[in-house]
Amino acid sequence: MSTTPPPKTSKSDEGFVPYDWSEPETYRPPAQARDPGPGPGRSGDHAFWERLPFPGVPWRRVLTIGIACFGLWFLLDAPSLQHSAQVSPLGSRRTVALDVVGPMAAFSRTLGLASVVGSADRALGRTPGGGPALAVPTRKPKPRPKSIPVAGITSPTSTTLPPLDYHPTPAKPLKVLIVGDSVGLDLGQPLVNTLASYGDVSTYLDGRIDTGLSRPDYFNWPAELRIDLTNQQPNLVVVMIGANDPQGLVTPEGSRQFGQPGWDAAYSARVAAFIAEANSVGAHVLWVGMPPMQDPGLDAELIHLNELVQIQVAQVGDHGASYLSSTPALGDKKGAYTAFLPDASGAEVNVRTPDGIHLTPGGGARLAAAVAGAMQTELHVHLVPGGAEAGPRP
Amino acid sequence: MSAAGRHPAAAAPIPCPNDGHVLFPTIDFAIFFAVVFAVQWLLVPYAGAWKAFMVVASYVFYAWWDWRFIFLLAASTGIAYGGGRLVHPATGTRRKVLLWTTLALLLSLLGWFKYFGFVAVNIDNVTHALGLGRPLPLVTVTLPVGISFFTFMAISYVVDVYRGVLRPARGIDVTVYLAFFPHLIAGPIVRGTELLPQIRSMRDPDDVHYVEAFWLISAGLAKKVVLSSYLSAHVVDPVFANPHQHSALEVLLAIWGYAVQIYADFSGYTDIAIGLALLMGFRFPVNFRRPYTAIDLQDFWRRWHITLSFWLRDYLYIPLGGNRGSEWRVSVNILITMLLGGLWHGASWTFVIWGAYHGVGQIIGRQRRSARVARGLPAEPTGGARVAWAQFVTFQVVCLGWLFFRADTVGTAFAMLGRLVVGWGSSPLVTPLAVVAIAAGIASQYLPDDWLTRGLKVFADRRPVVQGGILGLVLLAITTLGPQGVAPFIYYRF
User: Most exposed: A38, A343, B231, B307, by fewest CB within 10 Å?
Assistant: First the structure.
């Protein structure tokens, strides 16, 4: 082990000591001493940089290189950056980002450079410029059942459905589509496993982190749902979306910040349309509410969001949509946030991640059991335990 | 997910557990670094101002994640500095008491933030099962990023002072040493003997090794943003989340994929850290030396997360007795070291199992080497075919360990092993691109150094503006090929 070089001047603590890298007795990069060598059958160790084989240059030249690098990248990628700024949360950061990126994006488009990245995005099957890509349609949409308007429902495409009351059989399995944001994914993954333990149930999970109904310009959930419904043709759609939604909305009438007049109505309309979209192809909806959150502010926001969803579900009626509160499964005795809950044996299980938002696998499994229970008691789906230990996807 | 890659602003405020971290592959960090880079070189002639600026910059970097935890970093620094000052002049028993007190304080911070929840729930469940109630409160403690790294660095500083290989440094030097932002979040674990002399010395502003630095940063970004993120999203996460839903072939691909993912993720991040430090005139130790070319587990640990494995050797294994004593005693020392090394990665039984697995593997490997030497054979295999076979087997052994490392629970790990046997069926995740990505991740470790240095020579001979253009295109390729959003960094939580 090398030792600290002795100070070369008496004022070592006041200023830098001129240091000579070539003095092995005072300092030697220890990694050189540790080098085990390339070993048999190998040439080099990929740590050639440690020997600094290339000459150094003044730092201002490095800065020039860096500026040239970011300048070119900025020019070529500006349209994508602009789109990213557009779909970011409303606020001053977004405004500044748009002001900075906008002129460069326009310049890039004028020069025709935007097509470079746009073509690459299309070649990779992505949404050019930002946001997770939508699913790929694999089937053509089926003709939809005739819509029957129902008084009080805000969606223009509302449909009445008969009770689900489903008896899955090998010939007629129950097809469940699970859609959600990152918290929905925490539920969805264990729910796939839980439902797999019942016979004759097939599941399809479509979870997207960073998403919600507030910003379809970032990720268009209604369009994604339409594709999922066409591809999967489910009998039941389990929805858990909302953790990202207490934020500004962009509507045709302008932007609406969360808590401002008009926000509730705009968001409720989106929830209603989401349910109506599923109902329109004959799929029932089970909407799982957001669980209690550790942060009191976020908790209050999501309680309000849950209330808006419940109102919309109630307007659809008993058959087309049901609401399941996740508080009984994940809240404490008072319905408040808790990170630990006892399992059936009495052992405490950590149900929430340290961020106070997401669910641990244990928490997800607990909520998944509640969802499976609700499917039986509320939707009258006849799930038979002891189905096949899930095989690969059908 | 925090701002990342080509999509710096996500629409949502609650994406991933690491939301808000100032991770390297973000536009926020690029702006931050550009400012720090220029200012710190301008301040080089003024040592006091440079150190003060670097402390502020590093604390701002850390506060970006959660400002409250800068007090934790400051507390660790204060304990290490005070401990070093007190231990240095002390003698005899007092010296040992002061050392152990300092170490206990440092470890108590780590213990509270990282291990209390794990210990409490396990103790409570045992006492509850025995009818003795629940003596410990169950709380979830937010794990401060990088705490394991800066705690180990603080320990190495105090122990080095105790051992007499390092003189106590000034408070400002210790503060810069522990908070220096390139290594703050995820290492490498740089020792006082490595960094303090550099902090105290004048760096030459006309001798910036940019070719090596830009290589490290570019390669690190490509590994982290492109390879790791792709494998995480398309292969590893779906299978580990629901092993019952995937075929044997998919499970096998996910295990190999995770081996490549964690290498690309972690080595990519530390490559970037080393490159950033180099741009500022600092040299960090090597952290990875082509680990998947190892011929046994002992060799693997000389190549994987080198700064941790050598830390464990120097500050845990050797104090335990190291290679001294009976074979039994040496085996116990290895097992303790690897168990604690496993636990360092996280408070979970899966990490304990992973550590024990590597400990037992090292013991077996050590005995095999001894047996070979006793038979008059070289300790390591020789000859192309034997070496290749040893590398193949070692990689599979390492992958089996990664299975437990990655799995959320021990049950998930065994479920995946079960699927390897009975999981027949379609394998839609086994795509040509996934196979190529994994193969490329492994094959890249066999690239000769000559090829890399020759390529860099071409770059080094160009004019600055051309070099900037080349790097701009490389950056564009990385941000275009990278997924929309970068997978959460694996090692930040360790």
Answer: A343
